[in-house]
Design brief:
Shape of chain C: elongated
Strand order of the largest sheet of chain A: 1-2
Largest sheet of chain A: 2 strands, antiparallel
Oligomer: heterotrimer
Helix content of chain A: 55-70%
Number of helices of chain C: 11
Distance between the termini of chain A: 27 Å
Strand content of chain C: 15-25%
Structural class of chain A: mainly alpha
Number of strands of chain C: 12
Radius of gyration of chain C: 23 Å
Largest sheet of chain C: 6 strands, parallel
Largest interface: A-C, 34 and 32 residues
Radius of gyration of chain A: 21 Å
Strand content of chain A: under 5%
Shape of chain A: globular
Helix content of chain C: 40-55%
Number of strands of chain A: 2
Order of helices and strands of chain A: HHHHHHEEHHHHHHH
Number of helices of chain A: 13
Order of helices and strands of chain C: HEHEHEHEEHEHEHEHEHEHEEH
Chains: A mainly alpha, B alpha/beta, C alpha/beta
């Protein structure tokens, strides 16, 4: 087979463009940078260490939920139940510690077990009963929500022991107070980046989302792979629950209701394709940050909240349109 | 069978497979000799795909025996067959379009780094996989600009080349190719046929399934003709007319003796 | 033959008797936005008790989430068919529910809105609700009295665009405080959807904008709790006055703990009681209630201010809704 002759890169611009990473990769970073630059120009309170630390804290919970959502979406699935599972986890953790006086760390483990169990349930229904992820997670969303309300009687749990909120404590980097929770979030992102980019498991996740049949034919156990992804996502929702408890200081059964869609927003803004098989985990972090930056920046500028919603909607459309226009095939 | 005939690499005797009232394989035989390209042709319903599925481990025959290098084998799954050294290039290629050539080549068989990084941290050895992928592609003289290209950016023929290179890289005994030129134009088909020859020249016998008679006649060393669930003839493309081969395939012409 | 006709007769007799009995029991329907919010749980409790006391039967239904209009429409239809003489409803979608209510009223059912008025308000026969505007006025007056002559920087943590309850309380607060919308004293206004975590985020961002905020109006007590958390993290909780609305038990506890300075308490139980009474009365006498009945709002605080009448947290805890 002969090498196809390639015309010498015509204009230097085209040559340069060909060497840049695709727009779906750099797009989110550019958008974040432009947003930060814009807000920095509009108000002098934006570009400050403490402000950035705040934004990180504000996106912390959705940020970790979005890690699980990214993994699921990479396999061409979707998880509509993530926020509700997180809320259930936080109620279990807090009620076990407060109502039964259980050791705080044991209570945390119990909460994690519950979220992992729900993740496993999602995965099992999808892989063993062969139901579509959209439908399955739509169902578990309602089940998790109902259980949370019934168990907590829709009452917020207060009076938490200190160990439960330890991740809300801060340490200082110069002038800025940084919470341990945000460090954990960043650490989880780095860990997930490593797994997705540098390990076999990560590569298989991309493969099963890109071409499940090919993955199966190459001898990779796809059912087991998908089951593990949803279960892992459940664990991440549990960690997010712990972070939510640490941030707010309470177990709130009404929490997480908007996190289902907010996590998907972060994933989409970060350049991951909803069709599976393409995207980067760090993009999701950028996506979550974009939403947080806009919310913070617009507040600093005194712009009414409703515009934050408008802008988020516009950004999502732009992100998905860029995905299409960039020529990414299905 | 004369003494000088080499032992078959892959052989089947008396394969029977029934689906309810339908008998797909009715005592089918099969011989693949070393260093050859054996085309398998047959009309729809002749049992051609059932035969290939049995040989590649995609189904288990009801009766009959399969031998690989003389030893009796039983394949429980395609992965089983692959482990024993039989690779298949599927008709739809089974490649992940968004992934690179190197990633596709090693899909399911990824190489990890040595030592601590590999065993504990499970770190992929991307450099080694890229180097080996380049070598495999070069070996088969498939021209690609960059191993980092996503497979979906390649032409149909190049994509076929990636799938073939993958099978050739890992096959130890047999490569099965299912309709490799079906979706390709004239120029790319010729490239793929040349590729098949190179695979054989590297010492791997090839089973070629194809509806395309001109391609079959151009590239194969022998032709296995399947009809009504059995092997009705094995012909030499240089000694028989294409029209006669088609006639045998459709039953218009009867054959008594088994050709060499 | 005889046995069969006997059986048939007794079956008919039973049916007639139960139909007659059903005709005698007054059925009142209660449809809430959701059945998980403790506010509506209390409402249902009140309605159930009152129905029992009056010898009426209560049918209840609830939407799946705040804004679930479809379930409420179905419930109205079902209850009408089942013979309810009156339906009490907290409408999730104040406009979209109107046609279904009209159909029920045309069929002779008395429809009373609880807590939230429909749009237009006269789409229902009557409205038993908290005067949300007054609730805001009370805490506005309190905040003004508490701050005295000190210069104020106010943050308002509101509900969400377009929801009447949020607007009424916000506007009431402004009037009680004696300022108009757009007054420079208001340094930050953000929506919270009544959610604690969102209240915390909104407060954090407001503090970034104006670190010297010293008065915070919140739409409800979860938002107030979130605001407090943000202030505490910034070390500012001592110097800031937080006021709120609702009077749920958790909220009153927060007033007692000094987290919320004052809250306007509302009475879902009373709404339900009055509603059931009106329904039973209509079934018995055919007399309809009409217009707006204020079910009352009380300012709860442990630090009373002159000129603003209030009750203390002991009273508040006795009268609160939710888990005590």
């Amino acid at each position: 087979m002969s090498t196809q002759t390639v015309p010498v890169a015509g204009t230097s611009l085209r040559g340069l463009l060909e060497h840049l990473p695709p727009i779906t990769t750099i797009g989110p970073f550019v958008a974040l940078f432009v947003a930060c630059a814009f807000f920095a120009s509009q108000t002098d309170r934006f570009l400050a260490g403490p402000n950035f630390s705040l934004i990180l804290q504000q996106v912390m919970v959705v940020g970790v939920i979005a890690i699980g959502q990214t993994l699921v979406i990479l396999t061409a699935g979707i998880d509509l139940a993530c926020g509700m599972i997180m809320a259930l986890g936080s109620i279990v953790m807090t009620k076990f510690a407060v109502d039964y006086g259980m050791n705080a760390y044991l209570a945390i483990v119990c909460g994690l077990l519950v979220t992992v169990a729900f993740g496993f349930l999602n995965g099992a229904l999808i892989t063993m009963v062969r139901l579509p992820p959209f439908i399955v997670t739509l169902g578990t969303l309602n089940i998790a929500f109902a259980i949370t309300q019934i168990y907590s009687k829709s009452q917020t749990v207060t009076g938490l022991p200190d160990e439960l909120v330890v991740l809300g404590n801060t340490f200082h980097m110069g002038q800025t107070a940084v919470t341990y929770g945000t460090v954990m979030m960043l650490g989880l992102y780095l860990f997930t980046w490593y797994v997705l980019r540098q390990t076999t498991y990560g590569r298989h996740i991309y493969a099963v989302g890109n071409n499940p049949e090919a993955t199966r034919l190459m001898g990779i156990p796809t059912a087991r792979l998908l089951l593990s992804v949803y279960t892992l996502a459940g664990l991440l929702y549990g960690i997010a629950a712990l972070l939510a408890v640490a941030r707010t200081g309470v177990g709130d059964p009404q929490a997480g209701q908007t996190d289902n869609l907010d996590s998907i927003t972060a994933v989409v803004l970060g350049g991951t394709s909803l069709f599976g098989g393409r995207g980067m985990i760090l993009g999701t972090l950028v996506g979550a940050l974009i939403v947080g930056v806009f919310r913070n920046g617009l507040t600093l500028m005194g712009v009414p909240s409703v515009y934050q919603i408008l802008i988020t909607g516009i950004l999502v459309i732009l992100a998905v349109a860029t995905d299409r226009v960039s020529g990414r095939k299905r | 069978m004369s003494n000088a005939a080499p032992a078959p690499v892959l052989q089947a005797r008396g394969l029977i497979k029934r689906y309810g009232h339908v008998t797909a394989l009715d005592g089918a035989d099969f011989d693949l000799l070393p260093g050859e390209i054996l085309a398998v042709i047959g009309d729809n319903g002749a049992g051609k795909s059932t035969l290939i599925k049995a040989l590649s481990g995609a189904l288990i025959p009801d009766e009959g025996e399969i031998r690989l290098d003389g030893k009796v084998v039983r394949f429980h799954s395609p992965i089983d067959a692959r482990r024993q050294g039989i690779e298949t290039v599927y008709q739809d290629l089974a490649v992940a379009p968004a992934m690179t050539i190197a990633e596709n080549l090693f899909l399911g068989r990824e190489v990890r780094r040595s030592g601590f990084l590999g065993s504990v941290l499970r770190c992929l050895d991307k450099k080694r996989m890229a180097t080996e992928a380049t070598a495999h592609m070069k070996d088969l003289q498939i021209g690609i600009r960059s191993m980092k290209q996503a497979v979906e950016t390649l032409s149909g023929g190049q994509r076929q080349g990636v799938a073939v290179a993958r099978s050739a890289a890992f096959a130890r005994h047999v490569v099965i190719m299912d309709e490799p030129t079906a979706a390709l134009g004239v120029k790319e088909s010729n490239m793929v046929l040349e590729l098949i020859r190179r695979v054989r020249d590297r010492g791997l016998p090839v089973i070629l399934i194809s509806h395309n008679m001109p391609h079959v006649f151009e590239v194969s060393d022998r032709i296995h003709i399947q009809r009504l669930g059995r092997r009705v003839a094995v012909v030499n493309p240089r000694e028989i007319k294409m029209s006669d081969a088609v006639a045998i395939m459709t039953g218009a012409m009867q054959v008594e003796a088994q050709a060499a | 033959m005889k046995a069969r006709s006997h059986l048939l007769l007794s079956l008919l007799a039973c049916a007639a008797a139960s139909a007659y009995a059903q005709q005698q029991t007054i059925i009142v329907g209660l449809i809430t936005k959701t059945d998980t919010n403790p506010f509506f749980v209390k409402m249902k409790e009140g309605a159930t008790q009152e129905a029992q006391a009056k010898g009426a039967k209560l049918m209840s239904a609830a939407g799946k989430f705040d804004g679930d209009n479809a379930t409420q429409v179905t419930a109205i239809e079902n209850m009408t068919t089942a013979g309810a003489k009156a339906i009490l409803i907290t409408p999730s979608d104040t406009k979209a529910i109107v046609p279904a209510i009209k159909k029920a009223r045309d069929a002779g059912v008395l429809v009373i809105a609880l807590d939230t008025p429909t749009d237009p308000q006269n789409a229902t026969d009557a409205l038993f609700a908290t005067d949300n505007f007054k609730a805001g006025v009370l805490i506005g007056q309190y905040a003004k009295a508490a701050m005295g002559t000190k210069p104020v920087k106010i943050a308002t943590l509101d509900l969400a665009p377009g929801i009447t309850v949020g607007k009424l309380r916000h506007d009431g607060f402004l009037q009680g405080f004696g300022i108009k919308e757009g007054d420079p004293k208001i340094v930050c206004s953000q929506d919270t959807q009544g959610d604690q975590a969102k209240g915390q985020t909104a407060m954090e961002n407001c503090l970034q904008k104006a670190p010297d905020i010293n008065v915070v109006y919140t739409i409800n007590e979860p938002a107030a709790a979130g605001a407090y958390q943000a202030l505490k993290a910034a070390g500012k909780e001592k110097g800031v006055l937080i006021v709120s609305v609702d009077g749920g038990c958790a909220g009153v506890k927060n007033v007692k703990a000094g987290i919320i300075a004052a809250t306007s308490q509302q009475y879902p139980l009373k709404m339900a009681q009055l509603g059931v009474d009106a329904g039973v009365n209509y079934a018995k006498t055919g007399k309809k209630v009409s217009g707006y009945t204020d079910t009352g709002v009380t300012l709860i605080t442990d630090k009373p201010m002159p000129g603003v009448s209030s009750k203390d947290t002991k009273f508040g805890l006795d009268a609160c809704w939710g888990n005590k």
